[in-house]
Amino acid sequence: MSTATDSERKQPAWTSPGAQRSDISPLDLDDYRSSIELDQPFLAPPPAPAAVAQRLALVDQLLAYWSAEHGSASAGALSSYHDKRQLLRAWLTTRGPEPLPDAFHDALDRLLQREALDRGRIDMADLPRLPDDWLGLGCDPSPTAILWQGDITTLNTDAIVNAANAQMLGCFQPFHACIDNAIHSAAGPRVREDCAQIMQRQGGVEGTGWAKVTRAYNLPSRYILHTVGPIVGSDRLRPEHEHALADCYRSCLDLASRVAGIRSIAFCAISTGVFGFPREPAARVALRTIGEWLAAHPGAIDVIVLNVFSQDDFQIYQRLLLDE
Question: Residue 163: which H helix or E strand, with range?
């Protein structure tokens, strides 16, 4: 699982029309939800067999498409399942969003479903809750809140939040340790295809603080909320960075409230990876913004999961929650 929460801002080989424009407005949900069949449940196929030999045959089948697309037979030089699976993952990471054949998707979905079983599935009912009225919201009923350290791609929630980049097509660097890469790799290339459709309709890059939603396909969650956080990097943290980060949380919550199937959301620590937002100020912004939104929209969301990867992040949230 990744140790950072943002993908590198690399230019992919494929870009949507007008991708370099910055004078556009965010595309509304109603302008793309039908084109990506957002409201149609994803019917996952049966998982591939657990036996390595049978999985290897499936990977060979998928790599045959890679060989045909590249005019290469170099995959034949690899013998182990691990090496061939890594090649498949690297190719899918660097490949643009051009649609893949249904037969390819079906075979890959079976493999990804098996890998999801291997990673395990974390049900919210098994996780400890924070105390009622966890932020002093005074909501009735108070939304359930969970602080959890672990792999967000294993979490069974209605939606998870992905810290995306402005191209909104996922990370194009193989094996890069970012949450964008981890989520796209585990969910499958259908997510990139959906994001490409959205970006084509929008006509330009995604603005900081905006959000889009896609289905989650081969993840335990049903939806992915994609948002682009502010880049702090080596700069001094400024109020506009905090305002932009707050916009990310608000945009995700606003968008989730418009999708009937989203009643629980798992937030990653947006912008705290290679985007360089200091972790404690980021956690303060997250808690304050989520709390204010929930207080203004009672009953809109049932469960909030604050998902962190590192023990340091977990302790920061613990300390801030105790101070509330």
Answer: strand 159-164
- Residue 152 to residue 160: CA distance in whole angstroms: 7
CB 187 within 8 A of CB 216: yes
Domain, as residue range, for 107 = 52-118
Domain boundary residue among 118, 150, 170? 118
DSSP 86-125: HHHHHHHHHS-SPPPPHHHHHHHHHHHHHHHHHH--EEGG
Per-residue pLDDT of the chain (324 residues; tens, 9 = 90+): 444 444 433 334 444 444 445 578 999 999 999 999 999 999 999 999 999 999 999 999 999 998 888 776 566 678 899 999 999 999 999 999 999 999 999 999 999 999 999 999 999 999 999 987 776 655 566 789 999 999 999 999 999 999 999 999 999 999 999 999 999 999 999 999 999 999 999 999 999 999 999 999 999 999 999 999 999 988 799 999 999 999 999 999 999 999 999 999 999 999 998 899 999 999 999 999 999 999 999 999 999 999 998 999 999 999 999 876
Separation between Cα atoms, residue 269 and residue 301, nearest integer Å:
19
Q: Are residues 156 and 281 in the same domain?
A: yes
Assess whether 111 and 159 both reside in one domain.
no
Task: Look up residue 12 and give its two tokens.
Answer: 């992919």
d(CA 320, CA 324): 6
Among 84, 118, 152, which residue terminates a domain? 118
Are residue 272 and residue 158 in the same domain, yes or no?
yes
220 shares a domain with 114: no
CATH number at residue 274: 3.40.220.10
Check whether residue 113 and residue 196 sit in a common domain: no
**What does the H/E/C string look like for 191-209?**
HHHHHHHHHHHHCCCCCCC
Query: Residue 106 corresponds to which amino acid?
Result: D
Look at residue 15 and tell me if it is in a domain: no
Q: Is the pTM of this model over 0.85?
A: yes
